[in-house]
Design goal:
The chain has about 375 residues and is of the alpha+beta class. Helices cover about 30% and strands about 25% of the residues. Strands 13-12-11-8-7-6-3-18-19 form a nine-stranded antiparallel beta sheet. A six-stranded antiparallel beta sheet has the order 14-1-2-15-16-17.
Length: about 375
Amino acid sequence: MSHRFKFDVFIWMNALLLICASCNLACTAFCLKTAEGLWIGKNLDWPIGDGLLVTNPSGVNKTAVIPTDDTPMQWVSQYASLTFNQFGKELPVGGMNEAGLVIEGLAYSPSRYPDRDDRMAVNEFQWIQYQLDCCSTVQQVIDSDSLLRPVRLFIHLHFFIADQQGQAAVIEYLNGQTIVHHADGLPYPALTNNTYKNSLKYLHQHEGYGGDMTVHSGPESPDRFVRTVIGLHRAEISNEATSSSTAFDILASVRQSDTQWSIVYNPLTLDIDLTTLTQQRPVRIDVKPLLVEFPAPTRILDIHQAAELAAVELPFVVYTKEANRELLASVLSQLEQLKELEREKAKALVELLTAAAETGEYLLDAQVEIGVSEQKSKD
């Protein structure tokens, strides 16, 4: 099968690239490990809060969706996962799998993914899904770099990873090279929207860390990194027991006016606590029954509905193409209202991304093929 592109596709993709470049994606992630337990926190900060919670079963054949003629990665999901998705099924911004592996993507626009080589390619959001599908530990994620490389579909990301053993890592792509911070190379398990090296350099200018600067309360990425590290240190030395509430306190210290979601993962108990911009009371999601006891088919739940309910069993429903399209239409319509996307491009992107979730293959018309293989997902 040839890998041909229509020029309009690049226009649509460039539209999304400009969207993500102009919006303030001021995210924060960290790993809190104490004698009482293990928690991974994440704030999603940007203008749109719509999203779906998606269960992703194991045993599903998948093919990467990429906007280039590189060889797309193909795989079979080995682990079920629960993910947070804004751009539709198979394109998560973060999540946790049944082995307790957590991955979150954070924006870093100066990132540059590796140039084409003999590795297969995935887009940056499917990189998250691939790792949750195929890995159970941080080390396995690190080792997967020999097999695949990300190709930009929407935005340049770097990644925060943590596992059930309390290991954490930051994976960055700088000047086309994969940079891994892990073990002794990750003295503070936190990430914002700057390189880890530059974040450490700024931290060391502050009181208690080698410098004389005081802590700033602003929204800038370096300041959020400093406040996160300080919050982690205070929790680790505190005489009070730590819990998911402790992680939420750290997230609150770096919260912005547009923090849409605050998420606390517990990989040991396989549950997730969630608050949203409009609902600040945490709701707990018990992941294990969703993934292990009822593994298939794919199920979804609107994130706002999840946050507003206190039910023991949240009303997940079977995934439909129509629900996925509705999410995409809402997100892209809001981007249009923000003057970040033209109406016709928004409509076209709804169709493009809906197709990605259904087949792993685009056929926009009888003469247009987007660069992925003919193998289709089973779900």
